[in-house]
Amino acid sequence: MKKIILLFAISLVAFACKDDSKTAEVTVEETKQEIAYASFGKEINDTDALTSAEMMEQYKTLKAGDTITSKVKGKIIEVCSKKGCWMTLDMGDENQVMVKFKDYGFFMPLNAEGDVVMTGKAFVSETPVEELRHYAEDAGKTAEEIAMITDPKFEYGFEADGVLLKQ
User: ∠60-39-100 over CA atoms, to 5°?
Assistant: First the structure.
């Protein structure tokens, strides 16, 4: 009986001295700040997106009719006030990009503002001089103003299939 009590006492002391809290290994991890986005269209992420300046370099290599697939960050200037079916982005140095959405499959909120990340096809379109003059005439410009239009207008466009709007 003494042996059983002695064994019980030793077991009790052994379990009582045991530290049940797990020792935490100290590891240094880089804390990544999560940015909240509202997602529209195809599900995308914000990794490897080109900056506005990098995208403008890509646009400069394009001719009218060329397209490239890319992911780009930008800042909203304006959104269609009727239903959010297009937006314009500020690309720096007074450059803007007109963004439309693939197959009108999704729209942006009418009050959307701030930074976006989008993926899709970038392209350059050219409006010929005759068409520009016609638009100027329709707008009621003077003959002198119309005569000053001598160069075609190159516009940067983007057909987005997915957009992240920073919250």
Answer: 40
Are the C-beta atoms of 109 and 87 separated by less than 8 Å? Answer: no
Q: Report pTM.
A: 0.68
Transcribe the chain into DSSP letters.
Answer: -HHHHHHHHHHHHHHHH---SPPPP----PPPPP--EEEEES---STTPBPHHHHHHHHHT--TT-EEEEEEEEEEEEE-TTT--EEEEE-STT-EEEEEEGGG-----TT--SEEEEEEEEEEEEE-HHHHHHHHHHTT--HHHHHT--S-EEEEEEEEEEEEEE-
At residue 36, the pLDDT reads 85
pLDDT for residue 148 is more than 50: yes
How far is the C-alpha of 121 from the C-alpha of 158, rounded, in Å? 6
Q: For residue 163, give every residue at least 6 positions away whose Cβ sits within 8 Å of its Cβ, in sequence order, or none.
A: 39, 40, 41, 44, 101, 106, 108, 116, 117, 118
State the pLDDT at residue 153. Answer: 85
Q: For residue 1, what are its two tokens?
A: 């009986």
Q: Is the per-residue pLDDT at 27 higher than 50?
A: no
Tell me the pLDDT tens digit for each residue of 114-136.
999 999 999 999 888 998 888 88
